Amino acid sequence: MFGPTSWFFLGLLIAAFGGALFWMTRTSQLALKIVAGGVAFVFSSVFGAGLVNQYYAYYTTWGSLVANARGTGVVQYQPGFAAPAPRPTTPRMHTNRLTTQPNGGAVVPLTVALPPPVSPPPAVPTAVVPASVAIPKLALTAPPAPGHGRVVQLQLPGAHSHLIRTGFVYLPPQYFDPRYARTFFPVVELLHGDPGAANGWIYALNVPGIMDRGINAGRIGPMIVVMPATFQGKHGQACVDAPGGQLDDTYLSTDVPADVIHDFRALPQGPHWAIGGLSDGGFCAANLALRHPLSYGAVTSLDGFYSPLDDLALMNNTFGAGSALIAQNDPSTLALDRSSSLPRFWIMSGSGDTSDTRAAQSFARVLTSREPIQYVVVRSGKHTPSAWRAALPGLLQWTWQTLSGGPTATGTVQLAAPTEAPAKPASSSSAPARPLSSPSPIA
Question: Residue 83: which residues within 8 A CB-CB, separation 6 or more?
Answer without folding.
Answer: none
